[in-house]
Amino acid sequence: MSRKSYRVTFPGSMGFPLAGIVDRPDPIESATPVLVLSHCFTCNKDLKAIVRISRGLADRGIAVLRYDMTGLGGSGGDFSRTSFTSNLNDLRTAIEFASNEIGVVTGLMGHSFGGAASMAFAGENSDSTPKPKALITLAAPSDTSHLATLLDAMNPAIKTDGVGDVDIGGYVWTIRDTMTADFRSHDLPALISQIEIPTLIFQSPDDTTVSYDHALRIASLLKNHGSIISLPGADHLLSAQPDIELVTATTAAFLIRYSG
Hints:
Elements: E1 3-11, E2 17-25, E3 34-38, H1 48-59, E4 63-67, H2 84-101, E5 107-111, H3 113-123, E6 134-138, H4 145-154, H5 157-160, E7 163-168, E8 171-176, H6 177-185, H7 188-192, E9 199-203, H8 212-221, E10 227-230, H9 241-259
Helix pairs in contact: 1-9, 2-3, 4-6
């Protein structure tokens, strides 16, 4: 199947333009599943695993929008002033854009904190946006407060001074206490317990960033318990190609089964 990829820009929730890339089969058909793919905390749409999964899904007949949240990658805005609330709102704008640009969004996939946003959206009781038919998480946390605790531990100035810098992945990021306070304000487990659509959970027992316990907790909270696929040996960023291929092939089959 031929693939077509092109860059897009659309308004973000905080008033800044968000950068995205559409990877889709060419030609696209009315029954083609449409997926919005959200990246991890401080990551972007150009992370190797995100790129390869998105392109691989397009090669298998899935249309994908991968995008940068506010303040990251090619998107505008100040990352230090974002939050889980803004992440969730950026996801809403991405879903709206994809529905108009490609077709009605039938699936969500999120890596790490992007997976948390995807689950929160899927669990919301809102009629404003059509719910997807399938959900996939990759190394996603079962709550948002643990990240706030981790960031505070990395630099106590975040709590004492209201702002501080932390090193994540070799890059320095400015974190404000408004961000960590927002992380603590969300009850993600309660939202997960309201998810009713088929859910596929990828998690590595060797992930040192988000432990396997999070996948078990997510599965226990879901009404349909979901399906956990273990990725032994995989790291948090899914760096190895065999792991990427397994995630891509399984996700494609899952989406075609439940959202095609």
